Every structure is written in C-alpha cells, then in structure tokens.
Amino acid sequence: xxxxxxxxxxxVCGACEYECPNAAISLKNDIYVINPAQCTQCEGHFDAPQxxxxxxxxxxxxxx
Length: 64
Prior knowledge:
alpha+beta, 4Fe4S_Fe_S_CS, Alpha-Beta Plaits, 4Fe-4S, iron-sulfur, two-stranded antiparallel ribbon
C-alpha cells in the first residue's frame, strides 16, 4: 500500500520530496502529492517511510 499526504495538513515545506528514494513525491498545484504507482513505503531502502519520518507535521504522510 502506498502512502498519501493529507493536503489540508501539508505545509509545503518540501522535506519529503528530497527524502523519497523512489522520486514518488512531487509538487502539483502548490501541494505535494505521492504517486501511488511509485511509492514502495521505502521498502528495501529504509526501515520506515521517510516522508512520514521527516514531515514536521505529525500524521500528514499516512498509509493510503
């Protein structure tokens, strides 16, 4: 299952985009979104999804 970004909570800081090992996060219409086809929840790269780890707003990057 991919992760998603709760748009109403996103501060558009950009931290998640640079941490994603699959380049699944991009800026669309002034908000960051995760492409579910590219998101692997960082399996094979990290122990936890890095978008959720680096996000300054708790529970903004969550399982879809």
